[in-house]
């Protein structure tokens, strides 16, 4: 029996979609399926090479190795994870740099009218900064995607120097998502046998001390209850964190992570899945799996970074695939929202909405050339009538 058939039977038999979070509040009996986009079909490429639905426009806000327009700041190579933060007169978009040794993160500050006010470095001298996550207190967690990688807490406005948060565990970090209800930070691990973690700080809002825990469940479970266990040695040496707890569940390359009203969604690239951890019920389920849609019809492959909106829509970026950001709606429809044709050797990274929800920022990490050093990276903004 094919993996697609086996998984479909297992998931549907488990009643996978009894979610309590925003995305699955409606009655829904299976993982997301292809369907019509709420924004309609994609139109031909615009002047910036982006395919968008009617009513949306794009602009390029930064290019790797070039000055951010209107500033004296050179934009970093290989732009990766990102997030937006409100200011008194606009907002800030922060972006990681996924390159060795100098990695770090930079920020672009926008005025209320969307014009660029300034750009600057907020973290430097770190290693392969891939994704990360925003905190409720307005800082950005920048994560190193290397063995024994670290988490750095940064200040988007540049008002303070970044600080290392090694008590959050030393492993191949990818993304982070804060759960203010349970006062924990969820963490993904980009390893083929990686784990899903949570950091439980001693004091919420202070990430200097606390416990690292790992999600535990049977190896073949895709839907059902889970538990958490403490990691004995968060430093991960000589025994890697993912190998310290025998009951830890393995995931095929953890990527993006996003928390919304009771559910933490995270992606795994090795099996093209979007998982949903129902934190209130301590239950794991599948929100999307390309093996659980009709063969040859999966619009979303190469799942990577993920973000969401107040409406409950999820936006999932592709690493490869056909270079799309797909939307997954609360009614369980998955469809392309935008596409970057001619950039097949790149990946889409860092999707994040401006505080008012009218603008979506993201990057093509390696651009049209696909240069592995990321020197052709492009950071975009899409403006338009996003669903409230």
Automatic annotation (TrEMBL):
SUPFAM superfamilies: YWTD domain (SSF63825). Residues 1-29 form the signal peptide. InterPro entries: 6-blade_b-propeller_TolB-like (IPR011042), PhoX (IPR008557), TAT_signal (IPR006311). Keywords: Signal. PANTHER family: DUF839 DOMAIN-CONTAINING PROTEIN (PTHR35399:SF2), SLR8030 PROTEIN (PTHR35399). This is DUF839 domain-containing protein. It comes from Micromonospora cathayae.
């Amino acid at each position: 029996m094919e993996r697609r058939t086996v998984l479909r039977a297992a998931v549907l038999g488990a009643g996978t979609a009894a979610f309590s979070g925003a995305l699955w509040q409606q009655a829904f009996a299976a993982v997301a399926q292809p369907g019509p986009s709420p924004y309609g079909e994609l139109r031909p490429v615009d002047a910036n090479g982006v395919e968008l639905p009617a009513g949306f426009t794009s602009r390029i806000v930064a290019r790797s190795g070039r000055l951010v327009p209107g500033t004296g700041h050179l934009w970093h190579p290989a732009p990766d994870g990102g997030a937006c933060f409100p200011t008194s007169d606009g907002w800030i978009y922060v972006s990681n740099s996924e390159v060795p040794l100098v990695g770090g993160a930079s920020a672009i500050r926008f005025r209320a009218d969307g014009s660029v006010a300034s750009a600057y470095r907020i973290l430097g001298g770190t290693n392969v900064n891939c994704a990360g996550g925003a905190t409720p207190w307005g800082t950005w967690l920048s994560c190193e995607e290397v063995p024994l990688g670290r988490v750095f807490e940064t200040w988007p406005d540049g008002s303070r120097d970044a600080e290392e948060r090694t008590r959050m565990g030393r492993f191949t970090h990818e993304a982070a998502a804060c759960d203010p209800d349970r006062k924990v930070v969820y963490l993904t691990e980009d390893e083929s046998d990686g784990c899903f973690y949570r950091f439980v700080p001693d004091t919420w809002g202070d990430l200097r001390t606390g416990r690292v825990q790992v999600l535990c469940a049977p190896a073949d479970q895709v839907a059902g209850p889970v538990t958490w266990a403490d990691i004995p040695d968060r430093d991960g040496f000589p025994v890697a964190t993912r190998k310290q707890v025998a009951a830890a569940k393995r995931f095929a390359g953890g990527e993006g992570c996003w928390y919304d009203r009771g559910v933490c969604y995270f992606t795994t690239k090795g099996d093209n899945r979007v998982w949903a951890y129902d934190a209130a019920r301590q239950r794991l389920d599948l929100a999307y799996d390309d093996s659980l849609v009709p063969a040859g019809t999966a619009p979303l492959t190469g799942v990577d970074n993920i973000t969401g909106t107040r409406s409950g829509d999820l936006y999932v970026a592709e690493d490869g695939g056909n270079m799309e950001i797909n939307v997954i709606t609360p009614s369980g429809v998955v469809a392309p929202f935008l596409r970057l044709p001619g950039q097949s050797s790149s990946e889409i990274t860092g999707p994040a909405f401006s505080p008012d929800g009218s603008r979506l920022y993201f990057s093509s990490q390696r651009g049209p050339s696909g240069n592995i050093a990321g020197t052709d990276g492009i950071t975009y903004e899409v403006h338009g009538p996003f669903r409230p």
